[in-house]
Amino acid sequence: MFAAMQRRIAVVAASSMVLLWSANALAQGRWVKGAPFPEPSEEVYGIAANGKLYVFGGIAPVFRSKGLVYEYDPATDKWTKKKPMTLPSHHVALVEYRGKIYVIGGFVLPANGEPAWEPINNTWEYDPPADSWKALAPMPTKRGSPSAVEFGGKIYVIGGAGMHPGSKLTAMTANGPHRSLSVNEVYDPATNKWETRSPMPTARNHAAIGAVNGKIYVIGGRVGAAFMGVATNIDVVEQYDPASDQWGAVGARMPTARSGVAWGVYNGRIYVAGGEFQNGQMAAAFRAFEAYEPATNRWFIMPQMPIPRHGVAAGIIGNRFHLVGGAVQAGGTVGFELAPNDHDIFEIDGAAK
User: Fold this and answer.
1) b/e per residue, 196-209, with b = 16+ CB within 10 A?
2) Which site in 73, 111, 128, 229 is 20 to 30 Å from 335, CA atoms measured?
3) Domain 41-270, CATH 2.120.10.80 — does that match?
4) What does the pLDDT look like over 309-341, one tens digit per residue?
5) Domain ranges of the chain
6) pTM reported for the whole predicted model
């Protein structure tokens, strides 16, 4: 009898914890709608600059890069099309610094041969007010889908995917040889020069990244390959200290292992949204929305995204986390490519101080 009562108490306690956890998640904010994206596409990439949101990229069938550039003004809730990317490419890294946007690396369609992903090392500066592009010093390592962040006036570009050292191949396919990278290279906008730093412990691509309280955190992503059909998602959180050029202790695991995510930093937390998964039995995109708080090494489960998406552009303006475009199915699904025009905005409240 006493044992049965203990079991009932345990069930009630567990239920209460679930309710409390759910209530805590719901109290984190709310989803609202913004103006639809004019040219729906998967593999778009977003960044906020000068109080506006900018969306780049887009990919068409057989890996053709669209080179889209759009500006969203939250004051008017309107989109404006801008000059296209000078070099249309996909799986680029974006960073904002002093009002300029830096577009780094990525993949292009090879000039000859079968459709593939050819990694590049191009670095571009986009000036939003002037709507102009300028070529900068190339990155030392050719790679696509790296993660990049600005810290202390320098731009850190970490991980990605590229070719094997010494390979005669210049482009990758899902079943061809290529690798995830641990490369950590830093660009100085003041000198237009690159330096090599300590490599990341876990080589990966398609990962989230954020700088909080003097440290850089790389979150999730995929290992083994660039293509989701042959890669494996991970939940690893690794911390890098730019001041000492050292990698620290591994952080708390991300609740949902995924890659191809969108992310943003606000008030001491790194928000990670969406992503994709694929194996021999299923192919799917995620509605998962989670936030990592480095100060406490804790994850918070946020209200789910309205629709599942990967390859989705994101940017935080004020306390509003914008999600634009993307695809609702895992990449590489033949005959089914649905890219919605949805522009979902999460209004954050209750974030860490």
Assistant:
1) ebeebebbbbbbbb
2) 111
3) yes
4) 999 999 999 999 999 999 998 665 555 568 899
5) 41-270
6) 0.91
